[in-house]
Write a structure and sequence with these properties.
Structural class: alpha+beta
CATH class: Mainly Beta
CATH topology: Umud Fragment, subunit A
Number of domains: 1
Number of strands: 17
Distance between the termini: 55 Å
Shape: globular
Radius of gyration: 20 Å
CATH superfamily: Umud Fragment, subunit A
Length: 215
């Protein structure tokens, strides 16, 4: 048995080393994530494969959430990928509330630390520009009367936690559903689409989404 293992290693050493290094790289440094739902529309659409910078905030021990070196913290407006224990899945949302912030929402209008966030109409009736303290990005409000998602009272974001929202405000299971997101659940930051496949057109690649920057 030992001889067989040695023979297998000798014959496939280069391939095994390559696969091991690739897995370590994807686990600790960079990866991509498939987006199957529209919770981040219009910023991220169904079928996008987004790049994840896994050393944006921490250098993790491979295949774990153990932080070896802290490199920074999520900032307001960042698009963050995290492994949510509350929902038992990997999620992609936008950071809205930082630790210590007081955040509220009234009729889909955010206020943070007593300052009301401003909005601007776009060419699409359901989309608006949200001006989030210098970070301007699009959000989608398909149903203005969806009061269960359009309102929440003022809450204080606990230490080492974040308030995350999806850009598709009426259709996102974010902090309004799963609660505040612990810092240790954060995997990395997403700033680009690697490629995108159109689920409604035989999964053909979308040429206009290739390496698209996320805002």
């Amino acid at each position: 048995m030992q001889q067989q293992i040695y023979s297998l290693w000798r014959e496939n050493k280069s391939f095994i080393v390559f696969v091991t290094l690739m897995l370590v790289f994807r686990s600790a440094l960079a990866d991509w994530n498939t987006v199957p739902t529209g919770s981040m529309n219009p910023t991220i659409i169904e079928g996008d494969r987004i790049a994840i910078n896994k050393i944006a905030y921490d250098l993790h021990f491979p295949f774990t959430h153990i932080s070896l070196i802290k490199l920074g913290d999520p900032e307001r407006g960042d698009i963050v990928v995290f492994d949510s224990k509350a929902s038992d899945k990997r999620l992609v949302k936008r950071v809205v509330g930082l630790p210590g912030d007081v955040v509220a929402m009234n009729n889909n209008q955010l206020s943070i630390n007593g300052q009301t966030i401003t909005y601007e109409n776009t060419n699409t009736a359901s989309d608006k520009f949200e001006h989030l303290f210098g970070i301007t990005h699009k959000i989608r409000i398909s149903d203005p009367n969806n009061h269960s998602f359009a309102n929440f009272p003022a809450v204080v974001v606990p230490a080492d936690h974040y308030l995350m929202l999806g850009d598709n405000r009426d259709n996102s299971a974010d902090s309004r559903v799963i609660g505040f997101v612990p810092r240790q659940e954060v995997i990395g930051r997403a700033r680009n689409v690697v490629m995108s496949f159109n689920y409604d057109n035989y999964y053909l690649p979308r040429s206009d989404r290739y390496l698209e920057a996320l805002k």
